[in-house]
Amino acid sequence: MDDRPNETPLFTFGVIADIQYADIDDGYNYTRTRRRYYRSSLQLLRNAQKSWSESAVKPEFILQLGDIIDGFNKGHDASDQALDTVLREFSSSRVEVHHVWGNHEFYNFSRSALLRSRLNSTLHTERCLSEVQAGSEMYAYHFSPVPGFTFVVLDAYDVSLLGREKSSEEYSDAMNVIKQHNTNEDLNCPPGHLPVHPCSTDDICLAWNFEELLAIIRSHSSVVCFMAGHDHDGGYYQDKDTGVHHMTLAGVIETPPDSNAFGTVSVYEDRMLLKGNGRITDRLFLFPIPSDTDHAAI
Q: Phi/psi zone of residue 32: left (φ > 0), alpha (ψ -120 to 50 degrees), beta?
């Protein structure tokens, strides 16, 4: 896949999505067509941690792409316990973890509780955005592992009923938006949205304002990749107009116990190389040719 295997990467990071741990028996997805392995997801996280710790080139950080515990924990009054269990596994190594928030985070916790929790990665870094520092409830920030590369962590549920008080202006604004897109009696069906390119995910997982988001991405020649979770089957597409890679990572929760679902990404000046495990496919992401003033954004 990569004809320069001996070249040293600028940096390396691990990536994992949709762990959705719960101390309950196996179940099924919303349509009861796919099995979900709630307890086994913890072992798959251990597999990932072991692989990363034993790697010759160890990841400098981990991207956890959301839905770290399952919404069923809320009904069992086990949200805090489940989160502590998963975070204990992450803390078994000293590698920094950058947490993205998915819909299951908001099934378990209010937005204000998440901002106070260990899932708020801005509490452990000085690299947060000004609006977060000013006390906004938006969870979005950026960090730069090496000069020339910037990661932007987005708040996919800033406009959402999830995590908002029903009496709040944010809840009212979200309701107005949702009524334009969702005519179901149960407004939580489909349950959530994260990827932004229609060719990189199932339609029900696509962000409602994906066209607006794609326009923003396409307006910046520095963007090289958009990563997301949420669609447990995963997906991939390279935008033909810009060369931007859209990768949706397959989820741990629907991965059988005898398989795996995590990846390690090595980043070079002109490309990223994803080494997948189990359901995650190896991929080579060649970067679009930037101008002299561009910095790569992921």
A: left
Strands 271-278, 261-267: pairing is: antiparallel
**63 pairs with which residues across the strands?**
15, 98
State how far the Cα of 18 lies from the Cα of 104, in Å rounded to an integer. 9
Q: What is the sign, positive or negative, of the torsion defined by CA atoms of 250, 201, 244, 238?
A: positive
Cα separation, 287 vs 275, in Å, equals 17
Closest CA to 216 of 237, 239, 235, 193: 239
With b for 16 or more beta-carbon neighbours within 10 A and e for fewer, the 58-79 pattern comes to ebbbbbbbbbbbbbbbbeeebb
Structural domains of the chain, with CATH:
11-297 (3.60.21.10)
C-beta of residue 195 within 8 angstroms of C-beta of residue 207: yes
Mean pLDDT of all residues in the chain?
Answer: 84
Nearest Cα residue to 247 out of 59, 7, 63: 63
Can you state the angle between helices 79-90 and 40-54, rounded to 10 degrees? 20
β-partners of residue 91 are none
Backbone phi, then psi, for 167, in 5-degree steps?
-85, -5
Query: What letter does residue 252 receive in the DSSP assignment?
Result: G
Give this prediction's pTM. Answer: 0.85
Coil/strand/helix, residue 54? helix
pLDDT digit string, tens, across residues 150-197: 999 988 777 666 666 777 776 776 677 666 665 555 555 544 476 555
Residues 117 and 166 sit within 8 Å (Cβ to Cβ): no
In the prediction, which pLDDT does 270 show?
94
